[in-house]
Amino acid sequence: MLIEFRVAIDPEIAALVTAQQRELREADGGLDGQATETHDGIRYLAVVVNGRAVACGGLQSLDAETGEIKRMYVRPAYRGRGIARQLLAALEELAYQRGHSTIRLETGTYLPAAIGLYTSCGYQTIPTYGEYVGNPYSVCFAKRLPVPA
């Protein structure tokens, strides 16, 4: 397994984001209405197994201190192997390297496995923010990153 940077227009990233958005629409009954674009401002990491990207996640800067994790997704056939946990740790490291002291993310109330992952990795529930305010299916989390000595 390799975790590497990919550009937003990478065909494998685009395919993973499309699959993620399709799965979200199916899970929430189409109520969420999230967009399917990959967003130019997101720095993507891909998890590559046997030459194929099987998972992705991105980091977007909200401000100098805060990064937001976006588009976390692991193909169903690769779930249960710890890939999401390793990808999350790599995204946290990227946020740290970019000078962020806090990382935020949003997920859906209908995704208990995602909520379990985030809480087990030290994320705390916070009020909805930004585009998620008013969405009854959104649950937001934040985590303080270590401060350099």
Automatic annotation (TrEMBL):
InterPro entries: Acyl_CoA_acyltransferase, Bact_Acetyltransf, GNAT_dom. Keywords: Acyltransferase, Transferase. Pfam families: Acetyltransf_1. The keyword Acyltransferase applies. Residues 3-146 form the N-acetyltransferase domain. SUPFAM superfamilies: Acyl-CoA N-acyltransferases (Nat) (SSF55729). PANTHER family: AMINOALKYLPHOSPHONATE N-ACETYLTRANSFERASE-RELATED, AMINOALKYLPHOSPHONATE N-ACETYLTRANSFERASE-RELATED-RELATED. This is GNAT family N-acetyltransferase. It comes from Micromonospora musae.
